[in-house]
């Protein structure tokens, strides 16, 4: 049995009896997951290695479709439709539901072009508007002051922490509704980590955020809701404050108190 609390506010996504099986797996890697994702909030996914956090995160924008033979079952409802049904326009979906990866992935081009990339894909050609929106995205991602004098420089010349903020700027430039963060600070130093955490908390006012993290303290610091997963199942979805003080499930309690990891 799982404990999944009801969310009093608007929901951005609703996962309903969702299962997922990787190509060649003999049993589902995610099993019957049902959970709401609160709009304009941060939901953290925690749990031991291999429990399915990344697999669930990648289902939200169908990253698994990049490889053949993976199977979705059940529903992930977003904007009134089940996005794991095959008719979905995946480019459009990934603009609306963007992703920030564990390792910063600056494209091999200038800082400006990295941010303009998605907007150009969307058909934006007006140079003034493009420049304004590049600046806004870089400001929103708290990196403008560091890069404003070298927008034409190769983005790969930036530090890891700067590249991660660049990736966040690139993702928010196309004005997504949801941002998926897959362990966004695990390759970063403590100061850069602090910067990204601050950014996540600021962005929640306009974007729904789902973040996978190994770090329970990070989940406690940045999220409003936390989902604890174990062996491909969602064991508990609760308000973060309650999850880390009075978890509803014994398994959650054992995990957060360090009985297993
Ligand atoms: N590409 C893949 N092909 C087949 N099985 C996979 C693949 N990726 C993950 N798995 C399996 O799916 C299950 C869930 O893995 P997943 O990476 O989602 O867990 P996780 O909780 O994110 O782990 P970690 O914290 O170590 O990143 C594991 O049993 C894993 O071995």
UniProtKB/TrEMBL annotation:
Q: Which CDD domains match?
A: ABC_PstB_phosphate_transporter
One Pfam family name is ABC_tran
Which residues belong to any copy of the ABC transporter domain? 13-256
UniProt keywords (A-Z) are: ATP-binding, Nucleotide-binding, Phosphate transport, Transport
Q: Cite a single GO MF annotation.
A: ATP binding
InterPro entries associated with the record: AAA+_ATPase, ABC_transporter-like_ATP-bd, ABC_transporter-like_CS, P-loop_NTPase, PstB-like
User: What gene does this protein come from?
Assistant: pstB
Recorded source organism is Sulfurimonas diazotrophicus
Protein name (Swiss-Prot/TrEMBL): Phosphate ABC transporter ATP-binding protein PstB
The signal peptide, as residue positions, is none
